[in-house]
Amino acid sequence: MRSVEIAPSPYALLRSLRGLGYSPETALADLVDNSLAAGARQVRIHLDWRDGNPLVEILDDGTGMNFDRLVEAMRFGGAGPDAERQGGDLGRFGLGLKTASLSQCRELTVASRREGLVARLTWDVDRVGEGWSAVEPDASPSGELATEFQSLGNGTLVSWSRMDRLGGLWGLDRDTFNDRISDIRAHLAMTFHRFLSGETRRLAMSVNGRALNAWDPFCRWHDATTALPRDIIRGSDGAITARPYILPHRDRFASEREWDDAGGPGGWVERQGFYVYRGDRLVSAGGWLGLGGARAWTREESSRLARIALELPASMDEAWRIDIRKSVARPPAWARGRLAGLGADCRRRAREVFAWRGVGAGRKGRRSNADGETWPWEARSAKAVPRYRVRREHPAVSAVAQALGAESGLLEGLLSALELTVPVERIWLDVAEQGGAESVQPTAAEIAELAAPLATLVRSMDKMDDTGDRLDSVLRSLGVTQPALRAAVIRKLGGN
């Protein structure tokens, strides 16, 4: 059998590699991976607009590279996916530095200092012809971080110059360019949040001089977040760790800004689902990994509060089919069943919190506290058809029934009839179109109309001595917490 060498065309192949689908933020994240692998404790990124033809610089304080190491780093394919990597090495295919950078620019220059010596190489798309020849320039493109690099110790400077329309930063007006910088900041704060927060090895990072703060996908800082138990899933390729979180209802956040910030890049619906980590670096931020059976789960309003952390060792790259951009992961067959079970339970619990304002994730539609308050509605399912019932033991319902005496059957008949006609589909459609249910703030006319009957209801409840306590108990149990309405009812009761 005769072997025939068929060498690829460098010119054509390089242009094909430029179209792998990187965005500016995913490309920069790939470069930060290299900085972490080099032991960097600080990474600075600077994006200079330059009237729509920008220069992008990334400077780290890692160990740096001598000339021979730099040649290997600039080699396409380098240490490929089969290479044995250190625990902190976030590389995968040996292509990230080159393909990520050249997806955004036509000229990539890397300068690195180690032990006082500077090595520098450039890939120029327009100079690659019949051979894979890089250029050894005298200097990096002139920029803010290039100037700083001259006086620093060990470290590496990556420069992107001569942008074109293939990337996502060329030809933008100043405002749009600034918007892209905001997207980059948000993506990096999410992808490297464990490093930025010091949860793992600490890394300081800045973009155009502004330090990045970690964005925690699981809102662990919020006291209404429910962290469910960890689960270890073992298979033929090793073990993964999963931990589901149910995030708080919108009503539990202090402000709209706090709610929006907790939603993350792309918002609450986009960010629900599994968060896949590889070496503490976030690979996949949300989505349901194609789970859910014949009708794979989609991102829905009702499951937007469900997020699940998955920890993968780097040895599972092939099993999980981690892509070149380190932005997509696909679970192996042996893990899909257990992950689907975790996902289904997390989605169910999140739906309960979404549907019953502020209810605890483990209370299954009931809200109670030390006062014995009970949420007035409960959900029941018959053959997967949801039915909603008013709880007859609710204090307000009991008070009205007692007041009616022998005529309490009228109340039972009315509630039963109303329960049969709850417009579930219409309510769901209205909530979905509004992007979620918001707290109802009654108008002045509504407050005037509600105050008198609520005051009468409070008087009929004898379980507490103090009128204010009785009022608070009734209002909280009915989901009514508006200060203006409470004040109006107290005035009707003759209180202060």
Question: What are the defining features of this structure?
Answer:
15 helices; alpha+beta; seven-stranded mixed sheet; 496 residues; elongated
Structure description:
This protein is of the alpha+beta class. Helix content is about 35%, strand content about 20%. The protein has 15 helices and 15 strands. It has helices at about 10-15, 25-35, 65-75, 95-100, 145-150, 175-190, 195, 255-265, 335-355, 395-405, 410-420, 425-435, 445-460, 465-475, 485-495, and strands at about 40-50, 55-60, 105-115, 115-125, 155-165, 205, 210, 225, 230-235, 240-245, 275-280, 280-285, 305-310, 375-380, 385-390. The strands form 3 sheets. It has a 7-stranded mixed beta sheet with strand order 4-3-5-2-1-6-7. Strands 8, 9, 10, 11, 12 and 13 form a 6-stranded mixed beta sheet that branches. A hairpin with a 2-residue loop joins strand 6 and strand 7 (about 210). The radius of gyration is 29 Å and the shape is elongated. The chain starts with 9 loop residues before the first helix and ends with a helix.
Biggest sheet descriptor: 7 strands, mixed
SS strand fraction: 15-25%
* Ends apart, CA distance between termini: 99 Å
Q: If strands are numbered along the chain, what order do they take across the biggest sheet?
A: 4-3-5-2-1-6-7
Give the overall shape.
elongated
Total strand segments:
15
H/E element string? HHEEHHEEHEHHEEEEEHEEEHEEHHHHHH
Instruction: Provide the helix percentage.
Output: 25-40%
As residue ranges, the low-confidence spans are 89-93, 359-373
